[in-house]
């Protein structure tokens, strides 16, 4: 049963990753830009969305909460599939995330933004916390 459960979770991660790649590279009307877009200064983009002059509820939700929430499933599901502790599974997540950010930069279909990495990592860590709480609740290492 556990093997079938892990296979199902692996399948769900692959499907979710494909959807996420579509969103990040093609969705939301993304088209290639003329210039490479990037931000390597932490909290610049986050700060812009928190300023009243840049604030709209939709922009705030998509850029701040969306960048957190969309990565929560990885924090919940990756430890189930890879059976790794936090630092190792987070390292694997971070490698994939940086690859995705670099793909956005090089394809000019988005931007490489250190603030996205921060927010996405926060989402992953919230998900990992949910995973650990569930594992403790069920007294197992899912």
Automatic annotation (TrEMBL):
Keywords: Membrane, Transmembrane, Transmembrane helix. Residues 14-133 form the VanZ-like domain. It comes from Paenibacillus brevis. The keyword Transmembrane helix applies. The chain crosses the membrane at residues 7-28, 60-82, 89-106, 118-138. InterPro entries: Teicoplanin_resist-assoc, VanZ-like. This is VanZ family protein. It holds the Pfam family VanZ.
């Amino acid at each position: 049963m556990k093997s079938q459960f892990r296979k199902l979770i692996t399948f769900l991660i692959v499907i979710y990753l494909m959807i996420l790649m579509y969103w990040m590279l093609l969705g939301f009307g993304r088209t290639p830009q003329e210039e490479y877009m990037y931000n390597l200064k932490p909290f610049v983009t986050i700060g812009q969305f928190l300023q009243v002059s840049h604030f709209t509820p939709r922009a705030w939700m998509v850029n701040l909460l969306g960048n957190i929430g969309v990565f929560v499933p990885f924090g919940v599901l990756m430890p189930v599939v890879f059976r790794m502790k936090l630092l190792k599974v987070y390292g694997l997540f971070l490698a994939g995330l940086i690859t995705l950010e670099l793909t956005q930069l090089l394809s000019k279909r988005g931007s490489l933004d250190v603030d996205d990495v921060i927010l996405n990592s926060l989402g992953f860590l919230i998900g990992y916390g949910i995973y650990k709480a569930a594992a403790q609740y069920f007294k197992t290492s899912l």
